[in-house]
Amino acid sequence: MRTAAVATLYVLALVSLDAQDRAKPQTGTKTAATQWRTPWGDPDLQGTWSNQTLTPLERPKDFADKPVLTEAEAADYEKRLVQAGNVDNRQPGTVQDVNLAYNQVWWDRGNKIVADRRTSLIVDPTDGKIPPLTPAAQKRRDEDRKASDNERSAASWLDFDVYSRCIIRSALPRLSTGYNNNYEIVQSPGYVAILQEQMHETRIIPVGNGTHLPSSVRQWLGDSRGHWEGNTLVVETTNFTDEGRGSTFQYATKNMKLVERFTRISDRTIDYQFTVSDPDTWTRPWTAKLPWNRIDGLIYEYACHEGNLGLEHMLSAARAADGKK
Amino acid sequence: MKTTHIATIAALALAFTAPAARAHHSFSAEFDVNKPIKLQGTVTKVSWINPHTWIYIDVKKPDGTTENWGVEAGTPNTLFRLGFTREALPVGAVIIVDGYESRDGSKRANGRDMTLPDGRKLFMASSVGNDTQSK
């Protein structure tokens, strides 16, 4: 009798597993519940990943009514984006030309949009646009742009943004940029660590301990706390700082709240989504989604501080300009 | 129709390049847009450092003397990932640099375009823009 009951449960379990397998595109015969597990039973996100994509954060005006492209449209769009992004095609004698710096071989933007062919990384609001900035945020944006224009007469290293100063690449969350869009995830019981190739910072995220640091403690990458919701790692980050130009995300305040969701959906893909909210910056929260795709290479060191001659040279240039006044 | 198409491409180009078209720091704060320069010289040293590689070349002046110039380029990580090694640009190689001089008058330039004397681009990489990502 007992043997029959166990056998029945076993068969039911197999049926259930089969249904889940067919519902999700996965490799192998195991389900998401058992695939990609660490030895201690957590979902396994470990490995080296890239969030490189050509898909813009916001939907371009030309695709206002086109949230998703056909395969042919996507191929055409990719071709045009690659061509437009090729820095070898540039107008000499312009400030933009100087700022593009060096030729195409040094850039690594990739040549694909996201696999589901969306025209924006933003999925909420559905128009694919960042919600309107509050008047205070517009002021912060304008001030930052002015400060950026004034770098040529900088008086101090403090006049440069945190990227130029080799402190952080940018505030969280990270979007795809011109190069070094690579990450390595390592897990241990109770922790997930994410090494960001540029600029070499490692986020160490306690998992299962939801108590944030006191609000008086502010950090360049904020204070991240994670927990598992099924197979998804949910990470909430607060306690950002605004000590330094460019230290907050998209003109937000240091009180921005970030929620990230990491879900392993295949052997080579993590579905990554983030939601940011800050009533002092945007009129509503917004969400973007971009894949982290497995890379087969190594993460390389990016010891930015060690060779940051640029900062010294820019200040030297500003002092030389002072002398000519 | 053609104009519209070009305008669309320009708009798309702008939409794509505007946020990403910046090196680690502002090159226009370091180099002078009004001082374009072309240098031909022999490589004396390559510093494969982050955030920017520096290539040093000896440039012969018309009076027969030699000046050593530093040329700023991108992160070595990208080249390593493409399969280049430190042997890709040996000391003694002759290269031509088109760029802009530094604003403080030092013997430095940005490597807007770097070529070999026969016209081939330096670090020509057929695998640039590999398609292993995102799709």
Overview of this protein structure:
The complex is a heterodimer of chains A (325) and B (135). By secondary structure, chain A is an alpha+beta fold. Helices cover 23% and strands 21% of the residues of chain A. In chain A, strands 1, 2, 3, 4, 5, 6, 7, 8, 9 and 10 form a 10-stranded antiparallel β-sheet that branches. In chain A, a hairpin with a 2-residue loop joins strand 3 and strand 4. Chain A is globular. Chain A starts with a helix and ends with a helix. The N terminus of chain A is likely disordered. Chain B has a domain of 90 residues: OB fold (Dihydrolipoamide Acetyltransferase, E2P) (Beta Barrel). A 6-stranded mixed β-sheet of chain B has the order 5-3-2-1-4-6, with no helix packed on it. Chain B is globular, with a radius of gyration of 17 Å. Chain B is α+β, with helices and mostly antiparallel strands and 135 residues long. In chain B, 19% of the residues lie in helices and 34% in strands. Chains A and B meet through helix 2, helix 3 and helix 5 of A and helix 1, strand 1 and helix 2 of B.
Largest sheet properties of chain B: 6 strands, mixed
Q: Roughly how much helix do the residues of chain A carry, as a percent range?
A: 10-25%
Strand order of the largest sheet of chain B: 5-3-2-1-4-6
| Unreliably modeled segments of chain A | 1-28
Q: Give a count of the beta strands of chain A, DSSP E runs of length 2 or more.
A: 10
The top-level CATH class of one domain in chain B is: Mainly Beta
Q: Which structural class fits the helix and strand makeup of chain B? A: alpha+beta
Stretches with pLDDT under 50, minimum 5 residues of chain B: 1-20, 126-135
Give me the CATH fold name of one domain in chain B: OB fold (Dihydrolipoamide Acetyltransferase, E2P)
Tally of alpha and pi helices of chain A: 5
How would you name the oligomeric state of the polypeptide chains in this document?
heterodimer
C-alpha Rg of chain A (nearest Å):
23 Å
